[in-house]
Amino acid sequence: xxxxxxxxxxxxxxxxxxxxxxxxxxxxxxxxxxxxxxxxxxxxxxxxxxxxxxxxxxxxxxxxxxxxxxxxxxxxxxxxxxxxxxxxxxxxxxxxxxxxxxxxxxxxxxxxxxxxxxxxxxxxxxxxxxxxxxxxxxxxxxxxxxxxxxxxxxxxxxxxxxxxxxxxxxxxxxxxxxxxxxxxxxxxxxxxxxxxxxxxxxxxxxxxxxxxxxxxxxxxxxxxxxxxxxxxxxxxxxxxxxxxxxxxxxxxxxxxxxxxxxxxxxxxxxxxxxxxxxxxxxxxxxxxxxxxxxxxxxxxxxxxxxxxxxxxxxxxxxxxxxxxxxxxxxxxxxxxxxxxxxxxxxxxxxxxxxxxxxxxxxxxxxxxxxxxxxxxxxxxxxxxxxxxxxxxxxxxxxxxxxxxxxxxxxxxxxxxxxxxxxxxxxxxxxxxxxxxxxxxxxxxxxxxxxxxxxxxxxxxxxxxxxxxxxxxxxxx
Length: 476
Ligand SMILES: Cc1ncc(COP(=O)(O)O)c(C=O)c1O
What we know:
Blueprint: H1 13-19, H2 39-58, H3 71-83, H4 96-112, E1 128-133, H5 136-155, E2 161-165, H6 170-179, E3 182-186, H7 196-202, E4 207-213, H8 225-235, E5 238-243, H9 250-255, E6 272-275, E7 288-293, H10 295-299, E8 303-305, E9 313-315, H11 324-361, E10 366-368, E11 376-380, H12 385-394, E12 400-402, E13 407-410, H13 421-438, H14 447-455, H15 459-473
Parallel strand pairs: 2-3, 2-4, 4-5, 5-6
Antiparallel strand pairs: 1-7, 6-7, 8-9, 10-11, 11-13, 12-13
Helix pairs in contact: 3-11, 4-11, 5-6, 11-13, 12-13, 12-14
């Protein structure tokens, strides 16, 4: 146990209970056991933990999180992982299969995002190219580091700035913090898309790149990528489109007849994209793809060292050794889905979304923010959305609370396309809103924490609170 007692945690004590429910039930290892435990016993314990946790996401109560989750798909990708669990991309001499899997993952993703419809062919000097990374954040961090180094080298920019919508993912701020870049954050228009004229006005000689999302995490809306691309071309800077969430969804939604504005490499000024295989690509967690227009840009991502006593060393992404099994499982997921599989999956999700949207239209207190296609956010002028979120949690739902405005984000997945799940969501949402509307002074839950975090003027207090949350995670 940590030296901090429950009462020291104050209003964060419920988080400790949520993150550490197993203290009483299972042994806690604060140090290595003297002797190794029996393997069967260990596996049994792990299966017990899995069984305690999986019903909620399997039955479709979670936003995002597990995007496929059918038993057969899981068993298949697990087998693919197991086959390559010893592989390491760092040692291509031992595992050339890793190079096959990753180059094909990059090519398949690029082709889906318009690489075949641009001026230069895929993989040529000016064609679309990229890398497999460990997730959306790494794809974004790498792209931003790439622009910083490109701008320093090609434009002599030593005080780099990045112009991004307020709706862009937190990972862009992480990149700015890690790589000493000044973020210029731009507000949104009435449709929750970036305000293009404000964005144009923020560009200056220190700007290294622009950012747009297709779709953004909070609202699921798509920034006007074609207009951002024109600005980027005119100013001679890059445009990164974050397709981490939408990259494996929008291309298929477009083919299914949804009105998807141009967002990928078919737009000339788009110079890089991030696209997560471990979300709507249906690979297990731990892979994403970052793509660039032209190998020159990708070279600014690479790390090389020519005079290290440990030998000639290079690595394309942040990690050194990498889990070959994850790339193998990602490749297996993609080629087992195929174009028809992605199309069918997207159709099922869109059908669930339309049931949910119709349901929301029938709840007078609620409205959607902007005009999303897949992931969406629900807000209200009449009820406290954090209280609604608590009520949904009490009904087993795992959704995300948004800060500005107070709203609930939902990323619908194949789990919600199971029979009756979308209808259950609407029923529970209707009941939750009615309860909040009719019950004055509800106490407890997470709503007070969200409310406080959204409104405290001194943001340093909120930063401190968030650090405390991570400390709680590491408590025994
Ligand atoms: C639009 C968008 N970009 C980036 C990310 C970051 O992805 P990851 O959590 O895989 O690092 C997410 C995650 O939800 C996202 O929705």
